[in-house]
Design goal:
globular, 261 residues, two-stranded antiparallel sheet, 54% helix, mainly alpha, binds zinc ion
Length: 261
């Protein structure tokens, strides 16, 4: 029978590979949140009516662009928008307030939160690459990195590692009354104040989920069971140790075809 720790390690790795996928779509956030809750046995419900997820799912990416690129472009257009408004105000034009009505603060907040998450995702991607290049076991590699005097000269960003570590402890076992019983449950303990109509509580705590999943994956031996595809650069998990070069047969063939040309 398969070792349950091994099975767990592979499922955690598979969650990571979805989180780190470049082709992440607006529908993935709900899936990722639900799967993380299951993996971590957390007492957290991803409400079907969750306002944050609904706003993200209603985002229309530009046809020729990925979700990530579309959101980045959106963020840029917001900057331009604010600058234009400022110029109009300064030049004394009075159509400023008319246009303000179209500005939806909840939507802006939700998009910004996803952009923030995508940035976190990029750091995770680089971190895992850095770890793969390092010859030391992850616990030593991280400790060494944190005492490094040169903060910029590495894929493994020091601030990011510190954040990851501090997020780990914000998922905790507590006792609580559930129905008519005192039960031990696992909860996200990082309380945040709502800033807008979309409360921060509605945003699934992806950073905490990621921190748990990543460190649990590594603790269970994951360092020897992942890689990045030589063709498409995707993060992948393997069931057997040893260097595999491609995430799929499609990429293997594509690479071969390219090298023949
Ligand atoms: Zn690939």
């Amino acid at each position: 029978m398969a070792n349950p720790d091994f099975v767990k390690m592979i499922s955690l790795g598979e969650w990571l590979s979805k989180f780190l996928d470049d082709d992440i779509s607006k529908w993935h956030f709900r899936e990722l949140a639900k799967e993380a809750v299951d993996l971590l046995h957390a007492d957290y419900i991803v409400n079907p009516e969750n306002k944050f997820l609904k706003i993200i799912e209603s985002f229309e990416p530009q046809q020729d662009l990925s979700l990530i690129k579309s959101l980045e472009r959106w963020a840029l257009s917001q900057k331009t928008y604010h600058t234009t408004q400022k110029l109009k105000r300064e030049s004394g034009r009075n159509d400023f307030y008319d246009e303000m009505e179209y500005y939806d603060i909840d939507r802006a907040f939700a998009y910004q939160s996803v952009l923030h998450l995508i940035n976190f995702r990029n750091r995770t991607f680089d971190f895992m690459k850095g770890l793969l290049k390092s010859d030391s076991p992850w616990r030593f590699a991280i400790a060494q990195r944190l005492s490094d005097r040169n903060p910029n000269n590495n894929l493994m960003k020091i601030d990011f590692i510190r954040d990851l570590i501090s997020f780990y402890s914000t998922l905790d076992e507590i006792f609580a009354i559930k129905g008519d019983e005192l039960k031990k449950i696992v909860v996200f303990t990082l309380a945040k104040k709502p800033l807008t109509g979309v409360s921060e509580r509605e945003i699934p705590p992806f950073e905490i989920m990621l921190s748990r999943i990543l460190f649990d994956f590594l603790s269970l031996g994951g360092q020897e069971y992942y890689g990045f595809c030589d063709y498409c650069e995707k993060f992948y998990v393997v069931q057997r140790k040893g260097r595999k070069r491609f995430c799929s047969d499609i990429c293997r063939t594509a690479k071969q075809r390219k090298s023949i040309k």
